[in-house]
Structure prediction request, 211 residues.
Amino acid sequence: MDENKKISSAVIRRLPRYYRYLGELLENNVTRISSKELSERMKVTASQIRQDLNNFGGFGQQGYGYNVESLYNEIAKILGIDKQHRMVIVGAGNFGSAVAKYDDFAKRGFVITSMFDKDPEKIGKTISGVKIRPMEELKDYIKMNDIDIAALMIPTEYAIDTAQILVDAGIKGIWNFAHTDLSVPEDVIVENVHLSESLMRLSYNLKNYGN
Prediction:
């Protein structure tokens, strides 16, 4: 792939779906699949699949289709999940606790090493083997433990100041669940997850396309 080529956000959003479906095929001992067969499973046109994958080199062979394991591994490399990412969760409330318990993150290479909270009653406890530490330790912990990603799951009023602590500590990726936009340096990547916005998009589609 051309390192300078700009890949559209729509293609990037589809890559995790390809990865998930290919993983399911591997679990069912499927060794190869055509773009037509994959399109039927994913409800994406075969031409769209070919166009998406051609952004990264194609990977298919005419008359053969795609080798499922090979394509699965290549997409893992494209997504950067062929290596381990060390991650912390900031906020040990219900949502943060649910994320800590989700086993699939570790399977995808996202290893949650610690959680942080300001509630004295939570500090020192563990969730799925992950220890909850005081917020005062957050900055030093990130610096000393080679943390790549921080999941920000705290109330909006604390998010901006906490994000600055994360940036100062050297975090390069923030998974932001707080209902606010963060102002960070260009070399820090923020992935916003605004649940209410997602629900409003669902409402729009129900209104305009539902029966």
In short: The chain has nine helices and nine strands. The beta strands are 32-33, 66-67, 85-90, 110-117, 126-127, 130-134, 149-152, 173-176, 189-192. The mean pLDDT is 90. The radius of gyration is 20 Å.
